[in-house]
C-alpha cells in the first residue's frame, strides 16, 4: 500500500464531504467540518499543499483510517 502524499485543502474538504462531513463552517480562528457530534478543524488556505504529517493529524482527529482515506 503506498503512503499517502500531500493533499490540497480543497481535496481534503471534498474527501471529508464524501465521508459524510458538512462544511466548512467558519469558526473563531479556523474553519471546521462536522459529522454528528465530531468537529474537525480545517487549516486556513495558504496556497500550499497540506503536509503528510498535518494530514495524518487531521485524519486521526476525524477517526478516519488509512485504508478508508486511500479508498477515496
Low-confidence stretches: none
State the fourth-level CATH superfamily: Hypothetical protein
Please give the CATH class. Alpha Beta
Taken from the alpha-carbon principal axes, the silhouette is globular
Quote the average pLDDT: 84
Count structural domains.
Answer: 1
Q: Kindly report how far apart the N and C termini lie.
A: 14 Å
Number of strands: 3
User: Helix and strand string, N-terminal first?
Assistant: HEEEHH
Helix content: 25-40%
Enumerate the strands of the largest sheet in spatial order, edge to edge or round the barrel: 1-2-3
CATH architectural group: 2-Layer Sandwich
Q: Which structural class do the helices and strands define?
A: alpha+beta
- Count helical runs: 3
The CATH topology name reads Metal Transport, Frataxin, Chain A
Tell me the strand percentage band. 15-25%
- Rg: 12 Å
* Sheet with the most strands, sense and barrel status: 3 strands, antiparallel
